[in-house]
């Protein structure tokens, strides 16, 4: 067995695993558990510029000012309180609509 064949088989196994994960992900999105609460959430970060002043007494830099340098943006990937993670906005919408229609 050549290493080329090994690699092909590894890639095929990986592709198959990815396809299975994707199918599971889609099933979880489209068939929300009716016994769970479904609240969509995500984590967003905002950057600040922070300036410091030198304090002689403590011989340390101390935070002086903070300035928000970007607006809060919605996170790209969302999750649901029922445990489904890594959803796009469209997938999260599909999920809550499906939960509502059950
Ligand atoms: Zn959910």
Characterise this structure.
The protein has a domain at 3-43 and 73-100. The mean pLDDT is 93. Helix 1 packs across helix 2. With 102 residues, the chain is an alpha+beta fold. The chain is flat and about 65 Å long. Strands 1-4 form a two-stranded antiparallel sheet. It has a two-stranded antiparallel ribbon with strand order 2-3. It is built from 2 helices and 4 strands, in the order H-E-E-E-E-H. Residues 32, 36, 38, 80, 82, 84, 95, 99 line the site of zinc ion.
Give me the secondary-structure topology:
Layout: H1 3-30, E1 40-41, E2 48-55, E3 60-68, E4 79-80, H2 89-100
Helix pairs in contact: 1-2
Zinc ion binds at residues 32, 36, 38, 80, 82, 84, 95, 99.
Helix/strand-derived category reads alpha+beta
Low-confidence stretches: none
Q: What is the chain-wise order of helices and strands?
A: HEEEEH
Which geometry do the CA atoms define? flat
Number of helices: 2
The total strand number stands at: 4
Mean pLDDT: 93
Rg of Cα set: 23 Å
Profile the largest sheet: 2 strands, antiparallel
Instruction: Compute the separation of the termini in Å.
Output: 52 Å
Report strand %: 15-25%
Bin the helical content. Answer: 25-40%
Strand line-up across the major sheet: 1-4
- Bound ligands, each once: zinc ion
């Amino acid at each position: 067995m050549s290493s080329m064949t090994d690699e092909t088989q590894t890639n095929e196994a990986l592709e198959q695993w990815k396809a299975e994960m994707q199918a599971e992900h889609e099933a979880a999105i489209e068939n929300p558990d009716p016994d769970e609460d479904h609240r969509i959430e995500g984590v967003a970060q905002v950057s600040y510029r922070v300036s410091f002043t030198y304090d002689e007494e403590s011989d340390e830099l101390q935070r002086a000012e903070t300035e928000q340098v970007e607006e809060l943006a919605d996170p790209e990937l969302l999750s649901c309180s029922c445990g489904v993670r890594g959803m796009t906005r469209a997938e999260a919408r599909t999920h809550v609509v499906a939960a509502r229609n059950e």
